[in-house]
Amino acid sequence: MTGLEIGLLSILALLLLIWAGMHVSVALGLVSLLAIWEVRGRWSVAAAAIAQAALDSIDSYVFGVVPLFVLMGYLVGVSDLGRDAFRLADRVVGRLRGGMGVATVGANAAFAAVTGISIASAAVFTKVAVPEMMRLGYLPRFAVGVVAGSSVLGMLIPPSLLLILYAVVAEQSVGDMFLAGIGPGLLMALVFGIYIVLLARFRPDRVQPLAAAQAAAAARRDRPGNVFAEGAPLVGLIALVLGGIYGGLFTPTEAGAVGAAGALLVAVARKRMDARGFWKVLVETGHVTASISLLIIAASLYSRMLALTGVPEAMGALFADAGLGPVGFLVVYVAIAVLLGTILDSSSILLILVPLALPVVDGFGMNLVWFGVVTVIAVEVGLLTPPLGLSVFVIRSTLDDPRITLGDVFAGALPFAMLMLLVILLISLMPAIAIAPVGW
Hints:
This protein is mainly alpha-helical.
């Protein structure tokens, strides 16, 4: 077989292995190792490629951003800052029709700024927002749909693990990717909020019946307390981490360390953390970091295998001969990412598609930072689409309510998946939304 044939067969084998349940890092590494061995005909060359991939991918100061932000995310979850974010957002926008839905989107955006993990947001706000919305008369399908849709903000608003992963694979600056994620993340939150307000205004039967809305408004007038003081730790932590990065005080890696220290202080001050709990958080952080490290090493090996077999160059020639141009390529790319999202998780899609697409993107002269933002949004649509829909499954497993089925969560999340595609269109028409803060 030719190198190109080996490369194409390896991609097909990779998809089948992941779909069959093999861990993505194991599948990437195994398929890449066998393909390199087949192309070169020597096992020693394939073994050396593994060692070089490990050395080039995670042996750097920049990679320290991964365990530090993972640690910060776990500490933020323990500190109960998600509940603070929701209560603060509810105070600000809760009086609007559909205001609790808008508050959930706003709280998810704030929570994303200190966690960077969509699944964490889905789990936290399923416990915090869904029961409160249902208590105030919001329809169950709407409540879980809002939580599912807004949870994807955790992988777009920095710090984001997917943005970090793309930066490593595409050899881009983590700081630039963080800057580029702000505008699209806020735009997506705004689009979600506008949709919720319009839906509550013109189709209240799908959000909150009028009688329930009036009863909720009366209950709100009697609600005591000042949650702005309680929200101060969250606001302070966001200002510390993101303000430090964008103000030039910290590198992203240093900001992760500062943020983790700040989240630890909040957890201790609120008596949410003891020695045993801290050890558990450290162990979980180690597990996640080890998993991400294996993913990145395997992705680096996969990229080398693709380059060796000539698949990326063949793809570039295919798109050039087809005459699709940058627009046609982007439409096909996003469509493939969304389709893969029905069977694979976000990290797997990113690690499979990006090495294939980068040579084509370079050939068209596209901005790689902007392309990274589009990629993250496209693969995040997969968190909301059946049959895999990871965020949907997290929400359903977290709920303790037999009235809400998995189909209800998918149906409630579908409009938000469509709105994400609209955001991709807006960013494609106005790339400055993403790349203007980077200065390109």
